Amino acid sequence: MSRKTIAVADVLNFANTALALTLASNDPEGPSRRRGVIQMIEPVLFHTDNYKGYTYLPSEIDPKDGTLWFGYDDTRRKYFS
Q1: Contact predicate 29/35, CB 8 Å
Q2: What is the pLDDT of residue 2?
Q3: Strand partners, 54
Q4: What is the C-alpha separation between 16 and 58, in angstroms, rounded?
Q5: Residues with Cβ < 8 Å from 67, sequence gap 6 or more?
Q6: At 23, phi and psi to the nearest 5?
Q7: For 61, which DSSP code?
Q8: What is residue 23's predicted lDDT score, i.e. its pLDDT?
Q9: pTM of this prediction?
């Protein structure tokens, strides 16, 4: 099998897209799917010294005061590049 490489930024974009897609659906397994994406992307970012943090998606933030809603979903996030 030939060896292939991919840019970490591309993997990050794939992960953020997957996190956003599962957010858009009412899939009852959405949080589990998002946890899987998170468990995949964080080690890649840490091991390549590309981790720059994440932010919660606007759906989890109260626009009145900028704090997280009570009972927010920790898997609803976007990673920085």
Answers
A1: no
A2: 81
A3: 79
A4: 14
A5: 61
A6: -70, -40
A7: B
A8: 63
A9: 0.84
Q: Nearest-CA neighbor of 35 among 75, 73, 71, 72?
A: 75
Which residues of the chain are under the pLDDT cut of 50? none
Other CB atoms within 10 Å distance of the CB of residue 23: 18
Q: 73 near 58, Cβ under 8 Å?
A: no
Q: What is the dihedral sign for C-alpha 27, 31, 34, 35?
A: negative
Question: Which of 38, 11, 14, 33 lies closest to 22 in space, CA to CA?
Answer: 33
Q: What is the DSSP letter of 68?
A: B
The residues with which 79 forms a beta bridge, in sequence order, are 54
Nearby residues of 15 by Cβ (< 8 Å), 6 or more positions away: 37, 40, 41, 79
